What does this fold into?
Amino acid sequence: MFRAFIILILSTSIAYAECDFKTGQYIEELANPRNIDKITITVPKNSKWQKNFLKTVVSRTKVIPTKLKKKFKAKFEINYTFGLCTFWGSVKQNGDFRDHISLTEFGMVRSLNAKLDQGNILNSVQFKLLIPETRGGLNEVFGVSVLNTLGFITPETFQVNGTNSILLFQETARKELLERNNRREGPLFEGDESIIFGNDRLLNDDESLSRLENKNWFLKGASSQEITLQAFSVLQSAYMIRGNNSAQMGQYINPNALQPIASTLNLTFPRFHFVIQALGAEHALVFHNRKFYFNVFENLFEPVYYDGNVFDGNNQSISQAIKYPFDPKILKNAYNNLDVQHYGDLIVNERIKKKSKNYFVKRSGLNHKDASKTFERNWEIFSVRTRNLQYKVQEMNSPRRINSSRFSDDDYFAELDIFLTRASKNPSIELLGLQLQKKDNEMYFLELQNQQSKSISIEELATILSKNNFKGTRVTLLNYQKNNNSQNKSVHKFQNGEIITSDNLKVSIDKDNRTLKFEQNNSTEWVLLKNLSLKDWNIEFVGSLQVSQSSGEQRFNEAGLTGCLNFYNTKFNNVDISVSNGGCEDSLNIVKSRGNLDEIKIIEAFADAVDIDFSNLSINNLIVNKAGNDCFDVSSGHYKIIRANLHECVDKGISVGEHSILNLDQVDVLSANIGVSSKDSSKVDISTAKFTSVSICLEAKQKKQEFGGASLQLGKLECDGIIEVDKHSKLKVLPQ
It folds into this structure.
């Protein structure tokens, strides 16, 4: 029963999209692109916008001049099937070539880069609105549908009615793209096009390497800097090797060159290349089109799909699309260690087809009948090309194994000498940074090719990584010398996965009694259990709680981990987990995992007790006694708790965010600032709740721009505090 029930309609200091409906009432609908009728863009300074377009039309350069890609303030109107959102942002011309501009009977049409200052579209705040033909229209949507279903990182992509024509919406590679694909934010890299397309040049340049795409993540702190720089050095080496061997490898970047930082053989790239060739999307494998994400949990790179020109980018006949050739250099180099017969059969089975079709139908912009017809046509092409590719690969390659030995220093310097000789002849190459070392927490020491050396700030280094620019001079960094203070780690093979620990952590494994125990000597020590299937195990972590963390440090360490006890890609079946005296940001962190946990018990957590991301988990019994921040924090997943007893949570008892669903049968929170918080397009359903010494028993709100309001449904409630619901969110109280 209610002891007190006060609802406060909160105003917010952050400017969000103005919608004529509560976004918290339409969480599922806002995630479905079929519900967008039209996106209309209006530029207030219309005469200047028109003049900019005409200058672009009459320019005689091969590529669109950079000076004409000016930013203009713009108003966006999103017409949904159930309402309208209006918000402000900016637009500018997109694209390298002139196919990104067109003049039709309905007016000017141009491909745009868009950035929203308020609100989001399908959780995206930066995106492209493209003339469909520049990406192959529905062929591109089909390709993304297949790749996404197969687990590769893909941008949200769909066709939509625009101001004067149909446009192709495609989100920009940034934090939201990674989280949509169930990856934690980390470094994103792409091929550097600045000396290929910059200043109206159009060169096939083998000296063009890579660049960092999300420099803001790099600037967040020492841990993200160390992760980024180590990964960047490996990727630069891969680009150098490609350029040094371009006559043999063409545009292809051999993933073997990305192996030195990986702990295990990575078949992600051969699989990706196989699907890309089957889709006739080899344009995505051109070195300067490539995008990469460094997955710190797996300690390896993953490809990010972008600009593939699927089936040669047009609606050619089935017979033409089937015969579109395969690049022989990719056939020769890409498929070592991949069983192409098995993988080819896997990607065209009925389960993959059904999921891909459902994904495509939502994003085609067509009625269901026409969408199904278009999908079936493209699937026929994809299936036949898959069979043809299986035959071609087996015909060209006799079975052999990859040489998985590490890329040695001698190998690197041999490739570097070749690259330096070639680069010295390129007028676009000004200075090369041969070596980078960390000087202190604020500065780095950069050794240049001309035998000069400079002390540079973190901000200057970020500009070199992302723009290849240092104080107006083109400077490209080639290598980073690893921080000698970085913590070493140990790897234990366990079942079919791994247990990775910091060096001094004590590890006890009792396979007979199915128990794992880890003991800290100091609060910086950690363990990561990944790629495991655990049934009936009892896992215990004993911490030291000797916290040395300062307020300026990041939530995660140089291994990318936030927790003392960490799980990644793990399947649980009736598993018990306990952590005591955890001195990390999270005592327990679980990422991208699934299954059932019988009990989680956390005692004396320095900050968050339990943090779970991108997972699908049920928990029978959750017990937390003392947490310096949140007792239980989940995001981007589906969760169920039968019983939760949470005592002395400094901030929240339960925090649910970033498009999560939580079903909670019974919760008892004693002493917290907030009992249960539902945020950012999340849905929480509580059967029975009791809150004692809690200021805000329940809240539902929007916190981040890339999400909408939240939903909160509750049954029986005992509460002496208040309930807060903002104007974007929904609260429903079930009858007793």
